[in-house]
Amino acid sequence: MNFSFANYDSEKFYDEMFSPEGSVRPGYDHLKNKFETLTPQDLTSRQQAAERSMLSMGITFNVYSEGEGTERTMPIDIIPRVLPGPEWELLEKGLKQRIKALNMFINDVYNDQKILNDGVVPRDLIESSKCFLPACMGITPPKGIWCHITGTDLIRDDEGTFLVLEDNLRCPSGVSYMLENRELSKQIIPDVLARTGVRPVSDYPTRLLQMLQYLSDRPNPTVAVLTPGIYNSAYFEHSYLAQQMGVELVDARDLVISDGYVKMRTTKGFEIVDVIYRRLDDTFLDPDVFNPDSLLGIPGIFEVFKNGKVALANAPGTGVADDKVIYAYVPRIIEYYLKEEAIIPNVKTYICREQEDMDYVLANIEQLVVKEANEAGGYGMLIGPKATAEEHELFRQKIRENPRNYIAQPTISLSRVPCMIDEHAEGRHVDLRPYILYGDEVHVIPGGLTRVALRKGSLVVNSSQGGGGKDTWVLY
To answer: Which parts of the chain are coiled coil (predicted)?
Structure first.
């Protein structure tokens, strides 16, 4: 008996593969036909082969929430998510608009502060942000670009409209899973991939390297990836991207400041490093300027950066636009700098520092999702409908004590995609993290990482919270 979608139930959520009437949405025909020629056992064995392949390639991440570092492979689902070309092109246009405006905003915050002087974004909001770095005042990074690599999280609502859930401009992770999910699709369903007309993502490492090299004016600049080390949750990705780009993976022990440059220890002596793709947070970067207890950074590197002798991607200070409270102002930021309306709207957001919004949140917390301003990975978050009365009261107390640190949003039923669950198809909620590179132009990788809430009924897609991934097919 072959696998079938006949009993698949989208349960009144927006479904990416099937319309409410049950017809297949554009782009999914070949996939549906292929899967229905296979038995559930065939599909299960292909799924298991994909998981073994991930493990053998060392594609893992560390989970610290359980009290000890636990290394895991990211669960994957072999039914890809498909986005038609015209729909993607609108998203691409909206993401380019957003990144250009955010880059202008960061540069303004650290220089002229026109947007603060004009009261479009409250000054105290910036000055109280954990990610605002006064040391960056007056700096213009190489080529005027602050946010070189961004992972913007998108969701669909009940109507099928894409919304921006949050911006990740510090050290966005997950791109290695995007690349490997595509490689697994090539192994598991190569015929469908070829027939469907899917845009490639495999050139990401080449584009990343070209973008990094663009930041330096030196001929044939030396690029390195700076990692916090092997115990970081995304260490595999750091080593993977360095290897794919053909550049050195370094940590603080490999770098020194000498003669006004950052230099890397090599077997032939010290070599100047022109561009560093850093995968550690701002405050760990230079113990002389930020956190004096940091053992992960390089003393003096910030001064070299200020003097224009090394490019850092992303630039220190970029995280000020990553603050979830600043997120609420991004439509105003776009309008201020570009004189345009946001192409991709935000999720409706209540800013707890504003009294009227805080009163609403405290009174309706059972229906809302509450988030801390600078947490990530699904941490520091309350999903009101799933939480207990005690948890509601705890978050009410936190909000009252520090309203600036919280926003709230309606609980949105994320769109669903069929997943392989126990040899049959069940719907699971998803989001989408496209990756955007900002060099001589803004380039959006066609696809990104579709993250899946694999736990039945869950809305949390983060890998650290039990989520998994899917390949994302963007059609020509």
So the answer is: none
Q: Report the C-alpha gap between 336 and 56 in whole angstroms.
A: 49
Tell me the one-letter amino acid at 434: P
Model pTM? 0.92
Residue 367 placed within a domain: yes
Whether residue 153 contacts residue 168, with contact meaning beta carbons closer than 8 Å, is answered with yes
SS3 of 154, please? Answer: strand
How far, in whole angstroms, is CA 414 from its chain's centroid? 17
Residue 390 in 3-state DSSP? helix
Structure-token pair, residue 268: 């032939």
The range of the structural domain enclosing residue 403 comes to 350-410
Radius of gyration of the chain (CA): 23
Question: What pLDDT, in 10s, does the model give residues 407-461?
Answer: 999 998 899 999 988 888 999 999 999 999 999 999 999 999 999 998 888 877 8
How many structural domains comprise the chain? 1
Give the span between the Cα atoms of 90 and 424, in whole angstroms. Answer: 33
Instruction: Please check whether residue 372 lies inside any domain of the structure.
Output: yes
Residue 129 CA to its chain's centroid (Å): 20
Residue (of 345, 409, 329) closest to 123 by Cα position: 329
**What letter does residue 468 receive in the DSSP assignment?**
E
CATH of the domain at 354: 3.30.1490.270
Give the C-alpha separation, 143 to 274, whole Å: 14
